[in-house]
Structures are given as C-alpha cells and as structure tokens.
Amino acid sequence: MDMQVSFLDRLFESGLLIETGVDGLYGRSGQFEDVIAAFERLIDRIGGADGAEAIRFPPGMNRAYFEKSGYMKSFPQLAGTVHSFCGNDHDHLSLLQCMEEGKDWTKEQKATDIALTPAACYPLYPTVAKRGPISQNGGLYDLQSYCFRHEPSKDPARQQLFRMREYVCMGTEAHVTTFRQTWMDRGVEMMRSIGLDVEIDVANDPFFGRAGRLLANNQRDQNLKFELLIPVTSQANKTACMSFNYHQDAFGQKWGLTLENGSVAHTACVGFGLERIALALFAKHGLDVAIWPEAVRKTLWG
Amino acid sequence: MDMQVSFLDRLFESGLLIETGVDGLYGRSGQFEDVIAAFERLIDRIGGADGAEAIRFPPGMNRAYFEKSGYMKSFPQLAGTVHSFCGNDHDHLSLLQCMEEGKDWTKEQKATDIALTPAACYPLYPTVAKRGPISQNGGLYDLQSYCFRHEPSKDPARQQLFRMREYVCMGTEAHVTTFRQTWMDRGVEMMRSIGLDVEIDVANDPFFGRAGRLLANNQRDQNLKFELLIPVTSQANKTACMSFNYHQDAFGQKWGLTLENGSVAHTACVGFGLERIALALFAKHGLDVAIWPEAVRKTLWG
Fold this sequence. Notes:
The structure is a homodimer of 302-residue chains.
Chain A: H1 2-14, E1 17-22, E2 25-29, H2 30-47, E3 53-56, E4 60-62, H3 63-69, H4 71-74, E5 81-84, H5 89-100, E6 110-116, H6 124-130, E7 139-148, E8 161-171, H7 173-193, E9 199-202, H8 209-221, E10 225-230, E11 239-246, H9 250-255, E12 266-273, H10 274-285, H11 294-301
Parallel strand pairs in A: 3-7
Antiparallel strand pairs in A: 1-2, 4-6, 5-6, 7-8, 8-12, 9-10, 10-11, 11-12
Helix pairs in contact in A: 2-10
C-alpha cells in the first residue's frame, strides 16, 4: 500500500496524473495520453492483419442489456448506473433548496436507461446477435472504451474510470480457444518488446459475497480466465494488465449467438488495461519518457 | 423530425452508427471514428501553434465539483449522477430477487462521488485553481472527453453520450475575448475548408423551468455565448456544432482563479461537438467517404 501511495504521489508531482479529489478518478497529461496512443498503435500493428471489425461504443450501455448480462450477480459492488432529475419546476426548487442546505439531494435522482460500461465488450454481444448468424469462419471485433468500476483506491493501477482495448472472437470452440492462445503468446511478446517483465496466471476476480466464492472457484478450476501480470507498484502483488477470457458457449446461449450451421457460438475476449500498461511502463522505465531505453522508445514511437 | 429519423435510419443501415436500443446512445463504426480522428488532427493543425496544455479527463468528474459548478441550477434535466450498490450479502440477495421479478431494483442504488461530465471543461477550473495564480500572459488548455446529457432523441445530432473537444482560455478580459473571437473566425474558416455551410448566432440553451427563462435571456442579452450552426438534418433547424462561451469573471470568482497581479481571471471556452461535425460531413457529402469531394478529403486526410 505504501508503495502504491508513493507511486501515485510521484505521478501527481510529475503531472502525468492529475488529482480530482476522488480516489481512482484522475486527469491525464498529454504525455500520459501519448504513451497510451503509442501502445494502441503497437496493438494495431500486431493485430491489424487479423482483419477485426472496429466498433467504438461510448462509455455507457443500454441498462436492459447490462441487466441481462448478469454483471449484478457477480460484481454488484463495481457497477454504475446513471441517474437523472426527472421532476418539474416545483421539484427543482426543492432540489436546489436541498443542495443549498448541504443535504443529500441524490435520493430523488431516477435511474435512466443507461448503465456505465463495465468492460468494453459488454455492448457487443447483443449487437452482433441482432445481425443474425455469424460466419462459419468466425467473427472478430476490435473494441475500446472507457469503463467504470466502483472501487475507490489509492493504487494508481486501480482506477474507477479507465480504458480497455479488446478483441472479441466468436466461432467454434477450436477457433476461439486458438484465438485466445494466440493473444496470450502475442501479449507476452509485446510486453517483452517494451521492456516489461510478465507472467501469466489464472485470474482472481473479486466476485461478490458468499455465492461469489463458488463463481470464483469455477472460473479458476475450468481455466476460463487468464491474466498477464506485471509488477507496477509491487513485485509481490503484480497487476493484471491483460486478461484472456474463454466464455465457452455461455454468452452464445445468453445472447442467442449462432453460427451459420445453427450451432451456438463460443466466444472469447482479450483485453488490454491501457492505463495499467502505461503505468507499468512509467514504473519500470521512469516518469521521464525522454530517458526510457532506446529500444522501448523505438518500439513505441518508431 | 421526419428528416432526423430518416437520417438516423440511413446511418444505421450504412453501419456508421450502431443501434443499442436506447435513443441517443449509439456505437460508432471504424469509418465514423476515422472521420472524427481526422477532424481532430485538423483542430490540432489550426490550434497547435498556440501551445495549449493538453489534459484529458475521463467521462466522469468529482460530484462535489459538479455540485459547486451550478449545473443543477440551469440544466438539472440533462445531468447524470453515477450510483452503485453498497449493500451486504443479504441486500445482494434482495437485489437479485427484485431483478428476477422484473421490479425496479435501481432505487437501492446509492450515489457515488462521481457525476458524468456535462462539458469537457467542467473538471478543469478546480484543477487550475489548485495550482495557484495564472500567468499574467494567460493560461490555455486543450481538452477532450465524452460528455453526458440526458436528452433521449431520434435526432442523431442529439446524443446522450458524445465527445466534446475544447480549448479553454483564462486571463484578462481582453485576452480571453480576443481568444474567443480568434476561434470564431477560425471555426468559420475550418468548416468552409471541409465544405460545410456555416452561420454564427447567439446561443439558445435549454435552461430549465421558469427561472431558466431569466438565465436564457441574460445569456442572449449579454452575448455571452455564440454557436456555429450547420444544417445536419434540417435547413430550418440548424445544429450547433461549435460554441464560443465568454464567462466574464463568473468562473474566476466561483473557483478562485486569479492572475499573478491578484485580479480575478476572466475565462472563455470554445467547444467542438465532434459527433455533430462528423454527422454534418456525412449529411452534406454522403455516407460513403470514398466519394466525398477531393478537396474535403485532402483537407481531412492530406
């Protein structure tokens, strides 16, 4: 924890991250953004030839789809719903008086049709399902969006609003598990090419409550999710900078994703935590990009 | 309205925008994003030499700053607050049962410390204030973020989550009003260079309720805000694609922004509605970028 706070303070002092008064909610400097943009271009170079369809969803999604996703079963504590004022002139006067008196005015806010996106791929599944059957050769999608997780923290690698880049693959079991393995190999290679020490391990997601322990055990036992770990604030507690998920046919069943031959599609996704990767680079090579190792600079900026 | 729906349908059919089941909440195709990226590079070329400090805030901001901003006085109906589940294991079971039964589960959600950003510059003022006095030569900032406005609509140019690029200037009255005039001239020039018909008019913001009419009159009478209007779905009802705001010393007073000589800073901001500008281009030149006029393509993609 101490190392996390000290790294966060150094990021604030250098101006790379900008305090907003809320833990896990930060502004980014132009330099920080430049590192993320460079890393995204590296992703494009590695994955570009695969011919994924690029889609960019905004940071919020249809709440009905969010509900159907089952996220509230596993991670209710992390989810964010968007609420608005829906009253009349009279209600507005009460609201302003409530705010004036420093009381809690937010209880009167009503849920809108929008929930914040918890992972970049969540809006994709219902979108693809509406298009009809997926080619027998599989479908491949390239996504990126800001995501929300309600977990205030002094660990700069645990932000409440952060960007996730993802590739999602839909097809036969063999197709999507090969996709996942390909990206596990590529991920290790990419991180080494920018001077980062990596290891791959089974994931350890923070499923909520007692029932959550069963879900976590199941995820581990079936090797459904792997993470690529890099030391950011601690050698002992490494940070998951990529994840590799195989959903079997669970999303195919849920969303009605089928292949041309009528079988239910299997799906897998590979995610890059863009802020975490940038922070791993700053932690390893220093806060001044100008003095990063020449090989790393060359890989990122050519 | 009919033209708005028909344009929206054509955007869906072409795949440039992607339905999510919520009005005003859409996915974007890679081609749509490419137009926005090209227009942002045009902004960089026009504004780059001014030496603005680039800062990128996430799509949410500190709710305490949001409250202090006064946004709930003027546009309560447009604002979005982020709410989360904060209960225990028992509450979680109730929540899941409530969802199972199709009842409203969102009433139990509690407001977090985060509100969605209503305009890209909102998080900037408290950030700059904390740094201490602004140089007598003024401060200039380059911002971009997704912004939220709760106004579901079939008009593709009125989205609930959209991107705003902004320059914000802080300094003396003469400095910031010159900045604003410079960008009004540049804005007209830029839009003409990509083949768009523009006019500038005083703004007509949707201030809420009876008290709002006074605020709207004040804004108009004092010429505090101008808009650059372009026909998107209608020649009669043009769409505001840029805005040019002079806040006098209102934000300087509110946030404690001072110049080195101790006087209160005046502020002005210039905003680009990036989705609206992209849509104006598609409306004018057609949905197939490959057949846009050569001069427009050259300005955007070199």
